[in-house]
Amino acid sequence: MNGKTENSVRLFEEAQKYIPGGVNSPVRAFKAVGGNPLFIKKAKGSKIYDLDNKEYIDYVGSWGPMILGHAHPEVLAAVKNTAENGLSFGASTKLEVELAKLICQKIPSLDQVRLVTSGTEATMSAVRLARGYNGRDKIIKFEGCYHGHVDSLLVKAGSGATTFGVPTSGGIPNSCARNTIALPFNDISRVRRVLQDNRREIACIIIEPIPGNMGVVLPQKRFLEELRELTERHDIVLIFDEVMSGFRVSPGGAQELYNIKPDLTCLGKIIGGGLPVGAFGGTKEIMHYIAPLGPVYQAGTLSGNPLAVTAGLKTLELLSDPSIYRQLEQKTETLTDGLLSIAKINGLKLTLNKVGSMFTLFFTGKTVTDYDSALTCNQEAFAQYFQGMLAEGIYLPPSQFEANFVSLAHTDEDIDRTLKAAEKVFKNLGMK
Ligand code: KE4
Fold first, then answer.
1. Which residues line ligand 1 (CB under 6 A)?
2. What is the pTM of this model?
3. Given this model, what pLDDT does residue 99 score?
4. What is the dihedral of CA 66, 112, 212, 204, to 10 degrees?
5. 241 noted as active-site residue
């Protein structure tokens, strides 16, 4: 046992008595990388601290929300202030109107948004809305994309589903899965063929415009534009799942970066600033199909919760200086350029994909443009890399099929320390 994490080891044993697998979300279990998951006591800026007070430079960032860094003083102060007035009312508040308005101002494709409490709720509701809007049943998603644990979307899904080799989850009735068509990302000819064969049967196409859940993969030239052209031609609702990329890759998300206007957008993570907020939104024409205006039901006890909305509002306000995204990109570029050159010096053939401040280092010499190429990675080598970096005080996502996140709080010194750790780890790996 690594003496340094004995309190985490002990608590993990206790946790497994009361929580399946000892975790409340599978990817936290370290199953893909081995060893004992860490239990975190606190976090500040770019650092997290485990129960044994060991400090780590954190590149998980709660899987995306902590773009400003952990425990930002202004976010904490705003949440504490709101908490003084009560936690939840089950009635509307001014705060949720302010957040909805700010999101619509930042993302021009949104006339309206509905706030929910997770990315899963956002994507589940968006798919139901698309089906209710055009009365069709079938949906298209892309292999390796993960849209939360929604029955109809847990087909060839990425993130934890791929990490544990169950891209299509148990417990999903055939009647549900058979309406979901999973196609290779970046393959527009396959999309074209499927639309020909399923004329007027496809309700929506849902996509992570920049997938982060098979690791980070970039859309190839014109893929997204052609997808938009095809969905317009076939009257199919195009849903951008920007739960991860929204407010991460640019102030207006991937749709701003690639200048595409989807019909619906799903958001989460950063818009909650670390507290539970998701959202789905789009054109008034479609959004007016949602209850209480229209026939598509959707609801939530804690939707628009004042505390969560406060954390999201303050986070988005602090992100409103566009120069922030250039700073994030520069930090990420220094780190990723360094990782690749150290890997090369040690004879490691690795591929790195990045957009803005999210990136993935793939343990394969192939370029990674879709799910199949991502699956060529050497997961054993990745696990050794993960554990080696952890021993050096660097906390990475515990799966090859996830994104790393750089925050505004990551300093040049953090990046230097990370690259020094990589020098040691890659040297050992290179000798194997
Ligand atoms: P949540 O229900 O976990 O808030 O969001 C689901 C979701 C939807 N869409 C995208 C593009 C996502 O990345 C996610 C969730 N991301 C994972 C990490 N890849 C959350 C981490 C976890 O499952 O514990």
1. 25, 27, 63, 118-120, 123, 146-148, 159-160, 208, 212-213, 241, 243-244, 268, 278, 402
2. 0.97
3. 98
4. 160
5. yes
Q: Which residues pair with 43 in a beta bridge?
A: 48
Q: Give the CA radius of gyration of the chain.
A: 21
Pocket test for ligand 1, best of 24, 141, 163, 244 (most atoms within 8 A of CB): 244
Q: How many CB atoms lie within 10 A of CB 322?
A: 9
The dihedral built from the CA positions of residue 357, 358, 361 and 362, taken in this order, carries a sign that is negative
From 56, 59, 133, 146, active-site residue: 146
CA of 33 to the centre of ligand 1 (A): 19
Mean pLDDT within 345-370: 97
Query: Which numbered atom of ligand 1 lies nearest the CA of 123?
Result: 8
Query: What proportion of the chain, given as a percentage, has pLDDT over 90?
Result: 92
The H or E element spanning position 250 is none
**Which spans in 57-187 are helix H?**
73-83, 94-106, 119-134, 160-163, 174-177
| Residue 297 falls in the annotated catalytic set | no
Helical spans, DSSP H, in 319-355 = 323-345
What gap in Å lies between CA 126 and CA 402, rounded to an integer?
Answer: 23
Does the pLDDT value for residue 3 go beyond 70? no
- Residue in the block written with tokens 């949602």: 290
Sign of the C-alpha dihedral computed for residues 321, 220, 258 and 113 taken in this order: negative
What the block records as the tokens of 167 is 């891209």
Centre of ligand 1 to C-alpha 372, Å, is 21
Can you list the domains of the chain with their CATH numbers?
6-67+322-427 (3.90.1150.10), 73-318 (3.40.640.10)
Tell me what pLDDT residue 167 has.
65
Q: What's the CA angle centered on 165, arms 369 and 221, to 5 degrees? A: 10
Q: What is the pLDDT of residues 163-203, one digit of tens each?
A: 776 668 889 888 888 899 999 999 999 999 999 999 899 99
